[in-house]
Amino acid sequence: QIKLPQVADSVLISPDGLKGYSFYSFDDIAYMTVFDIPSNSLEDTITLYTAPRHSYTRISSHVISKDGRRVYVAYQPYSGDQSTILAVDAETRQILDTISLSYRITQLILSPNDSKIYVGAFSAGTGKILKIDLSTKEITAWPYSNPATIPDNMVLTQDGSTLYVHHSPNYSGYRPSYLSVIDTTSGQEIRFEQFRFGVGAMALSKDEKYLYVSNRFVDLVRVLDLSDFGEVYKYRTSGDLLFSEDGKYLYVSTNNNIIS
Asked: How confident is the model at residue 188 (pLDDT cuts 50, 70, 90)?
């Protein structure tokens, strides 16, 4: 066990499994605590930002690079179409760069070579996917069908060629909801599907033949064949989804505080 200085809102683990990063935001201040997993010891706590008081600024997403050298953290105030992405050096814990956006952010995903970051974003009620080139900071906005929806879940294929984006009319994920399949080379939407249920989480099988989709309101995980999006199986559970490294096991954090 590791005793953290604050209650963690969320946690990241480095790709090699040796370092952990916990995040905590309260009263318009956010912290990142670094801990060493083999020794179960704390290493450092840094302040990520200090926002204007009563702006109720919170961390909305974070991701760590495949090489474990960079941690990217997105944060935004409670209201207004604005957000910031921080690039933090995982070794020195210094903030290396900031990217300001005129959008609200729901999720960050890094490309396999860590050169681009894909952002689920929306502004003035319109959702988009942003591609940010991390070397040039060039931002490209990709629209999708039925744009009056919020992109609340994204998964990327291992080679980075295809992005699956779930979007719904609001954060709650009330049905109907939608899935857009985007070619990341062209930025074009190559498939569009409508779901008759709200989606809580998504995960790709390791062979990338199936998409696992948890229902937000009912204990149900659907397995969809990506060749035709037909449903091939159901599990009577629901929650966040994570595959083991070998793809043999699917872990589900259920709504009743149980991991299946």
From this structure: very high
